[in-house]
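User: Hey, my collaborator sent me this sequence without any context and asked if I could get a structure. I don't really work with proteins. Can you help?
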Amino acid sequence: MDEKKRNKGGAPLGNKNNLGGKDREFKYALRRTVKQYEEKGLPRGEALNRVTERLVQFALHGDPKEALPAMHLIADRIEGKAAQALHAEPGMPELITLKWDEEDEY
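Assistant: No problem. I've predicted the 3D structure and written it out in structure-token form, which is a compact way to encode the shape of the chain:
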């Protein structure tokens, strides 16, 4: 049997599909920054609460350059991103919508 070498996540070496989470630097940097505010005396979660309050303020009261992106971000996080149309070959359906129920077991 031909055994391929694998990385820590189990994918073959050289696999570029990013299932290992290497592009999550922003997420980790944001968590570190929020943690720094926590260490400066803010109660746990307060820094993140302030960020979300500011986001909602931009959506409700900001000028259009601030409000519209904030509204999109809030809607995407709460409702999920809108379905995107896929262009198909002639004779094929023009729109395919995929939806998963969170309660389904796979």
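In plain terms: The two ends are 29 Å apart (CA to CA). You can pass these tokens on to your collaborator as they are.
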